[in-house]
Amino acid sequence: MHEDHQIAPLAGVRVLELGNYIAAPTAGRLLADFGAEVIKVERPRTGDELRSWRLHAGTTSMLYRTINRNKKSVVLDLKTEEGRRLVLELAKHCDVLLENFRPGTLEKWGIGPEALNAANPDLVITRISAFGQTGPLSPRPGFAAVAEAVGGFRELVGDPDRPPVRVGVSIGDSIAGLYAAFGSVMALFQREVRRGAAQPGVPLGERVIDVALNEAMLSMMESLVPDYEAFGVRRERTGGRMDGIAPSNAYVCQDGASIVVAGNGDSIFQRYMRVIGRPDLAEDPALASNEVRWARREELDAAIGDWAAQHPQAEALAILEEAGVPSGPIYTAADICRDEQYKARNMVQRLPVSTGEDVIENVGFPGIVPVIGGTSLPIRSLGPDLGQHTREVLTDILGMTPEQIQAVAAGEGALL
């Protein structure tokens, strides 16, 4: 465990998470990782749908335990008047509210920004949706798969002679969650700056953070739009390559394992070609610039591929490292779990975890990023059981009696 386990930059910040799936819960996880108290509101009986995603055993998935770590779970039914009343009561005691319902849902329930602002005029309200809270597409539902397509990302993933493919994780949700966490902290910073300067509070319009999944993906697309607008350039799928950058690709080694090599810097390229036994390419003046190398990418990849096929992965990487050519193995989960670099920075943390039926000991979970204090901060707790903290939160924050809490539970069909 991390020696300085008290490092918690967001200690004292309380967050109310009304989020399901991945986007808003990712934002909540990031805030919780660095010390915020995150209260996750879940529906009775089933909770967040993520509890059953990639469920290999038991009743609660590792995906849920990972994305909802360091949080508290409270069961409230937002479709009931009492559930919504309690949300407004909790909002009075919070700094940030996270939500990722379809636009208009909170307003329909009577707990939209105006109602939340009336309850707490300092509350930061961070909203994540497929297409944002405004504009002609705002009412549409949508998951990350759609946002990745509309944001321009999906068009560039895969090989040029095949249809676009999806990466193996919900990248659109995760990037939106990053923006939501950043937006929340930014708004909190603005609030504190105004308080320190004895200025009026931040108006509601500036405390509503509006994150659209498709826009989060668009923001990752580098110069896709300006290249098209200025020069009529349409980016295309390039497989394992990066458009306009060569040589940079994955190559299969003698033992069947693959490596990634990024030898596209001008001086790196010359070292790279010499170490693979092709000084002719290193000295070719026509390959001195990246633009020309991209035009001859097939020739370069063929030469590199021939060299890689003559060496086992470990040997190839050792040769490239000695020559100062950026390279690395393509890791599986097993490789990550035994990697010394991840171990040195506490980036795979081992904890016992419940499936809801059994406890599995010593399971690795990804550490907390970014690093503060030399190694990843420790995970304080994995994603909680459904309703695990309902009594604690309603008692400690709202001062409710056991009888009042039981009445709420009975009305919502929840087991507390």
TrEMBL record:
Pfam families linked to this entry: CoA_transf_3
Gene3D superfamilies linked to this entry: Crotonobetainyl-coa:carnitine coa-transferase, domain 1 (3.40.50.10540), formyl-coa transferase, domain 3 (3.30.1540.10)
One of the record's GO molecular function terms: CoA-transferase activity
Keyword Transferase belongs to the record: yes
Record SUPFAM superfamilies: CoA-transferase family III (CaiB/BaiF) (SSF89796)
Keyword list, A-Z: Transferase
Name under which the protein is recorded: CoA-transferase
Biological source species: Sinomonas atrocyanea
Highest classification ranks of the organism: Bacteria, Bacillati, Actinomycetota, Actinomycetes, Micrococcales
